User: Fold this.
Amino acid sequence: MVLIKWHGHACFEVIDSRGRSIVFDPHDGTSIGISPPRAKADIVLSSHKHFDHDAVSVVAKPGAKTLVEKEGVFDVNGIRVEGFLTYHDKSMGALRGRNVVYKVEVDGLVLLHLGDLGHVVTEDLLEKLGSIDVLFVPVGGTFTIDAKEAVTVVESIRPRIAIPMHYKISGLRLPISGIEDFLARSKWPVVKVDKSEYEVTKESLPERDQTVVVVLRYR
Assistant:
């Protein structure tokens, strides 16, 4: 079993059955208008070096393992992490730079965090990714894929659970869109969770050929 906690924007914490905390794309809160993440991570994974995704010191425990914009395969405290190069825009990084998406295998589950993905996923990357159980996908546009492109990405990856992120929430000062357009375009069942955390086990996953969109409530 893993416990997924949303700390707003693109910051998610995954706590495994041994209590190990993995935090993706931490922000510092105040610089974007929301609360800082209340997390203490054993592992911190940052997709790229932008202020709203790489506030490692805010969440890292002393001695935490950190990967910032790192491609490759890593064994981090016994957890398999794989980083794949993508881009923050549709121009192979010419506008906003690189973006590394992280695939993490923990407690028998495969999770993929897309960071600030700026383009639809290539066939080459899809082959490398394989089957994904839980996908964290940006939907707010402006700096990432927009709602329409996010639907295309979910269709391509075919996760069993898709969790939207990086969209306008109360207090956020970034000029991005809300979640409404993505949900209107969604072709899958939508489950709205009235809290910022969600438990997932292998047994609780939808069937392999099904996708469910899970929307968490920020704080």
In short: Residues 2-216 form a domain with the Metallo-beta-lactamase; Chain A fold (CATH 3.60.15.10).
